[in-house]
Amino acid sequence: MTEQHRYPWPDASATGVGSWPGEDPDEAVRTVLGELPDLPHLPELPARGVGADMIGRTGGLLVDFPVEVQPSGWRVVDSPGRDIARATSLMSYDLDALTEHAHGFQGTLKIQVAGPWTLAASIELRSGQRLVSDQGARRDLAESHLEGVLAHVAEVRGRVPGARLLVQVDEPSLPAVLLGSLPTASGYGRLPAVDRVHVEAALRVLFAALDDAGAVPVAHCCSAGVPIDLMRRSGARALSLNALLLDRDHDEMVGTAVEAGVGLLLGVVPSLDGTRADNARMSDPAATVDPVRELWNRLGITPDLLSRAVVTTPTCGLAGASPGHARAALDAARAGARVLRDEPRG
User: Fold this and answer.
1) Which residue, 132, 21, 19, 22, is CA-closest to 73?
2) Would residue 67 count as lying in a domain?
3) What is the pLDDT of residues 179-197, one digit of tens each?
4) φ/ψ of residue 312, rounded to 5
5) pLDDT of 45 over the 90 cut
6) At what angle do helices 285-299 and 251-259 cross, to 10 degrees?
7) For residues 144 and 205, is the Cβ–Cβ distance under 8 A?
8) Is the distance from CB of 199 to CB of 142 less than 8 angstroms?
9) What are the phi and psi torsion angles at 274 (to 5°)?
10) d(CA 255, CA 247)
């Protein structure tokens, strides 16, 4: 195996995307560590409400950039209020649970934060317009986000010193930012697309800083139209994608990433309680990972690299699933990872 193909996780690994059902961080962390011993993640529990949602959770990490909830969503304000205090408190509970249950953990641990472009697309300026529409505000947000994320990485490392950290940067809004499909405040128009050069530059600064801090940057987008090449060029060491949305049009971009030593976290397991057909596919590990094996065969990459390069995951977060389905999804992801190792050709 060449140096560029030394992936930061064990062979035949599985993990979760991020969110988890329920409101008890102790139970969630204990479950994830038990179900995903090779590559656990810090679960997110948005069912707890304001401050536990993706935007509020990362909003609580921002430095000197206060936001609060308005009827229309998160908005920039002059000074921190109770919404950010609640987000900070909820994160503290999560980290306390991680400290207790991951005591002595030695291995790779994944944490997740919302990316700067998804924050910019989701947070409003005081005028009510989306922050992404203002270049100066975007720059200030990116700087605050970078400082806050690095502080969060240091905090997690201090609590679990034996862990190698993967930092998954969630960018579900990235395609809309690039395509200019975000609605204006009135809802009657669309905001202009942001230049791809600016998008890539901001991500490159973030990913390089994470690398310098000894963390592995992972870019996640499970939306259709995911900009694979842009995320790879930005310096992501791994890409987290929904495998069920990848088709032949993505082959060249995925192949280029793999050849560059970029790892793949591929969603293969339904993230919601599904139909009878979905449940049947989940119970058959080979059928679960068939889309990945078919992709690999099309790419023509050596089969023995498959289970090292690819981590299996649910297709998206599990917050909307029942607790039973969430556990079954992680079990199916683990079983699928073993198939990729034992039967890579299909």
Assistant:
1) 132
2) yes
3) 999 999 888 999 999 999 9
4) -90, 140
5) yes
6) 80
7) no
8) no
9) -110, -170
10) 12
Domain span at residue 240 reads: 3-116+152-172+195-342
What per-residue confidence (pLDDT) applies to 223? Answer: 87
18 touches 168 (CB < 8 A): yes
- pTM for the model: 0.96
Q: How confident is the model at residue 273 (pLDDT cuts 50, 70, 90)?
A: confident
Evaluate whether residue 142 is within a structural domain: no
- Assigned domain for 145 exists: no
CATH number at residue 112: 3.20.20.210
Tokens 């596919």 label which residue?
281
Picking from 196, 182, 72, 35, the residue whose alpha carbon sits closest to that of residue 120 is 182
pLDDT tens-digit series, residues 86-142: 999 999 999 999 999 999 999 999 999 999 999 999 999 999 999 999 999 999 999
Is residue 25 a contact partner of residue 97, using CB atoms and an 8 Å limit? Answer: yes
Contacts of 63 (CB under 8 A, 6+ apart): 144, 147, 148, 151
Q: Interhelix angle for 25-35 vs 82-101, to 10°? A: 40
Residue 109 identity (one-letter amino acid)? L
* Residue 239 counted as domain residue: yes
Closest listed residue to residue 328, CA positions, set 296, 290, 278, 283 = 283
Residue 274 has pLDDT above 90, yes or no: no
Per the structure, how many domains does the chain have?
Answer: 1
Q: Does residue 12 surpass a pLDDT of 90?
A: yes
Contact by Cβ (8 Å): 291, 242: no
pLDDT above 80 for 295: yes
